[in-house]
Amino acid sequence: MRRKAGVAAGACVALVLTGVAGATAWSYAGDEGRPVGTWHEPPGVARTPVAAEQKAEPAAEPQVADRTEAATVPPPADNKNTEPPAAEGRRHLPESATTANRQRVGELLSVNKLLGYLTGAPKRETFRYPGASYVKLHFSRMAMRPGDYLTVSNPDGTESYRYDAPKTLNTGTIDKWAMSITGDTAILEMHRAGDPLGLSSLLGRMGVDVDQVARGFSRTEQRRQPERQPTAPGRTGREESVCGSDTSADAVCYRSGDPVAYTKSKAIARLLINGTELCTGWRVGPNNRMLTNNHCFTTTSEAYDTEVWFNYQCATCGGYNVFRPTKVWGDKVLATEHVYDYTLFSVANFAAVKKFGYLNLDAARPAKGQQLYVPQHPAGEPTRIAGTLGERAGNCSVENPSYTGYAANSDVSYFCDTEGGSSGSPVLSRATNKVVALHHFGGCPNSGVRGDLLASRLRGRL
């Protein structure tokens, strides 16, 4: 039977409820201070608009720094939550072939909010969407005095990002996205310095405009979303890719019974692409290298608009809290190919995610019956692992080591349970704990591009 997102028996559900604090059972609070971010704007790379929809589960522990070093950010003062303004409207952009294959987990909302400098203009705005799994702000103008800065935070200040005024005053339009805030409320606040340059005469032309918000779907909304997981060409299969009864479980359920699988699962990341769409990615090798599918994204501009969430896992098996995710931006696409459906890319602030470890591709060709496990973010959930806890793998084993994907014999097929959002997940051998396939197709059997082929093609790039 098909498992709908967020309702599987024993699955961790990150509820958005007043009083539900972040998990403390296993965290990195000791070596990460309150984080700060900055604009993620590569020279010479045009930013792309956010696509059309996507989801994230709400976490409630502090987030990680962006491209700059962490610094102390004052938590926001108490502020009354407000409902979304009636003028807000939904915006759905046309789908490309790529976006049609990415799991949708949110939507874009049109807003019109201004933080200005004139008397009476607000210095603070609250963006609250009850039940939303994340809130992500888009700025169309940021005319600020030197020394001023913005913070975007959750209500208790445990997740906070700082954005300094541009070095050159610009009163025109911009196109900038802030890092998402996990949960249903984001608080934008302007912190003003003095006026050492005597810019008071320009104050009427200055201010910060928010014109869009990406709002993560609630659990109920996510259950209504169709599964976006492609099937192999020429095969219809089923839309569902949970083959039979669902045997996947929260990654933390493996911590004592299968500690190797649990540790390996730390190397995967939830990819929030263009603010509203989802895939899975993972660290490959010890350097700053990540792998996902070509059908997830293909260009550096898309990588720059991708949030890479590490440590988005349940704190207890079947519990309701999650560890704080460590969020960094995607950086550069280093290699991509359609036939073998891979994209190799790097991330910004690599130092923040090195501690989560990495996986290695298996250079040996997979064999029929080889037992497998698949850490993944199905439908945007905290990390789950398909493949039973150290016992016989059951349906999570190599069914056909010469399966046809986009090319003859390019894939490995298996019946390990996956869903939309699992695209780009590593398929690991229980014997070697190396990656024998890069998951990309559902349809029962599900399939992934052979790891030995990828190892050959990416030799010298890792």
What does this structure look like?
- With about 450 residues, the protein is mostly beta strands.
- It is built from four helices and 25 strands.
- The protein has an eight-stranded antiparallel β-sheet.
- The model is unreliable at about 1-10, about 15-90 and about 90-95 (pLDDT under 50).
- As a percent range, the share of strand residues is 25-35%
Strand order of the largest sheet: 12-20-19-23-24-25-22-21
**What is the overall pLDDT average?**
76
Succession of helices and strands: EEEEEEEEEEEHEHEEEHEEEEEEEEEEH
What is the number of strand segments?
25
Helical content band: under 10%
How would you describe the shape?
Answer: elongated
Tell me the Rg in angstroms.
Answer: 22 Å
Number of helices: 4
Ends: how far apart?
39 Å
Q: What class do helices, strands and sheet pairing give?
A: mainly beta
Instruction: Please give the largest β-sheet.
Output: 8 strands, antiparallel
Flag low-confidence runs.
Answer: 1-11, 13-88, 91-97
Task: Describe the secondary-structure layout.
Blueprint: E1 89-91, E2 103-104, E3 106-116, E4 124-128, E5 134-143, E6 149-153, E7 160-164, E8 176-177, E9 181-182, E10 185-191, E11 207-216, H1 219-223, E12 249-250, H2 259-265, E13 268-273, E14 277-283, E15 290-292, H3 300-304, E16 306-310, E17 326-337, E18 342-347, E19 372-376, E20 384-386, E21 398-403, E22 411-414, E23 426-429, E24 435-441, E25 446-450, H4 451-457
Antiparallel strand pairs: 1-3, 2-14, 3-11, 4-10, 5-8, 5-9, 5-11, 6-7, 6-10, 12-20, 13-14, 13-16, 14-15, 15-18, 16-17, 17-18, 19-20, 19-23, 21-22, 22-25, 23-24, 24-25
